[in-house]
Design a protein that fits this description.
The complex is a heterodimer of chains A (106) and B (414).
Chain A: H1 16-29, H2 39-50, E1 57-64, E2 67-79, E3 84-87, E4 90-93, E5 97-101
Antiparallel strand pairs in A: 1-2, 1-5, 2-3, 3-4
Chain B: E1 5-10, H1 13-21, E2 31-33, E3 43-44, E4 46-47, H2 49-53, E5 60-61, E6 72-74, H3 78-92, E7 101-105, E8 108-112, H4 117-120, H5 124-139, E9 143-148, H6 151-162, E10 169-171, H7 175-179, H8 195-203, H9 209-213, H10 217-224, H11 226-235, E11 254-264, H12 266-286, E12 289-300, E13 307-318, H13 321-336, E14 341-353, H14 371-385, H15 402-406, E15 408-409, E16 412-413
Parallel strand pairs in B: 2-6, 9-10
Antiparallel strand pairs in B: 1-8, 1-9, 2-4, 3-5, 7-8, 11-14, 12-13, 12-14, 15-16
Classes of the chains: A alpha+beta (106), B alpha+beta (414).
Amino acid sequence: MSDRGMKKWAPFSSLIEQATCLEEMKYQRNKIPKPKLTQDQIEKINYVLQNYEPGQIVKVKFYNDGYLYEADVEIKRIDIENRCLILNKGKLKFENLIDIDNYQAF
Amino acid sequence: MDRSIAVIDMKAFYAFVECVERKLNPFTTPLVVCDPTRGDGTIVLSVSPFLKEMGVPSVCRRRDLPHIPGMVFAQPRMSLYVKKSAEIINIVLNYIGEDDIHVYSIDEFFVNLGPYLKAYDCTPYQLVRKLQNAITSKTGLLTTAGISYNMLMAKVALDLDGKKKPPYVAVWTKADVKNKLWKVTPLSKMWGISHGYEAKLNAMGIETIGQLANTDKNLLKAKFGIMGEQLWEHANGIDNTDLRDKYIPQDTSLSVGQVLFKDYTPQEAKLILKEMNDDLAMRLREHGKLTKRISVGCGYTAKEGGGFDHQVTLDYATDDTDKLCEDVLKIFEKYVGNHGVRRLFITYSQLENAGYDQLNLFEIGKTDLTKKEMTRTIDDLKRKYGKDTILRASSLLEESTAKERHSQIGGHHK
């Protein structure tokens, strides 16, 4: 049967503002609180950072505005004063760092 | 397959919102949502239930309104209605998962009830009442609903029955296809049948939905193609749509169009095209897309009639405003000649993903302002402080419509 399915129920997209507003509402709604790190996790992050060699690519998992992200980055410098990592792609605050893996080290 | 589907609709949505905001009773107040600053040909967007009961059509022109003492004219506030609409979906999300809600329009949405009946230990009717009560108690707004075994039947139950009178809920079963749906006439009273189809079907001697349902399916298919098949199925209460099966248009496109308030010369129209292109290109970037095809449409003045609609395919997909603007104007200049212009459209199609951009997740560390970063900055400013924050200097000219359009949603007051 050649049913047109959900095509015939496609919403009127004339109001772009409505779609945007719904997306924003869902974005706000689906936010999660920042995960609390266990002592083990903190020690693991410390270990990886202490053994980091310049030029290595690490996988960081970080928290930003209610969501978790992952990225492959290179660490340029650790900025103790401002409590953040200076990466090839910007800055990452320690407080938002959730996990870090260095596959090249092993 | 039998499902359990509800469609819920906000009763006289805009007018109801305006009554609630003003602490007026919608059932005793003559209120219309209609811009009082425009002429008497202005569209009335919504009328209060009180006026509806007096026989005022929900959508009409201001000049068609009866003279009633104490009539309240509410200036449309589209952004408020959009916000309320999201608020309502937010309430429903407390009970129903995202996959089981289909937002159909600003004041109407479908709910796939089936998966929740066991968990809430209730009937479809009870679950819908639960949702309706939650919406009313949190927003003060009233809803109407249709419930049935598929989306189509839920929709017709709402339109032909649920909307009419308290308690504003109609449950239609399979037996109601014969008992209720088949009695419907004229044909266009049913969802999905336009006046055009009605006229064609009338010419075949089909006057009621029942007659349509009992017409040979193959005959309808031969005459109207896939739509003929759909007409027959709907008339028989058949709709196999799975609400969870989200329809994503294959070749998505973005477009913008406007009808001008006076006749524009081609030179003046170019200014408008630039403004439209600026807004559309920003939307393109917000969607994280690039376009590979641009089309420009133009309608000439009523006196001249006609117009054109032409497109070009680009060598590479882009989201660069200037590049897009250049091509838009090239198409326009090639075809417009000396015509006066009254309507303009731009469409971007063959959209591609712009690719994952890390930069917006982190802070930008670079100091050199490349063109891309400048565009991004302008976009951010516009998003944060409004679209009028940065405009083309030419938008200060008298012919410009940018500022006026930025103060509207869907052509109505924000």
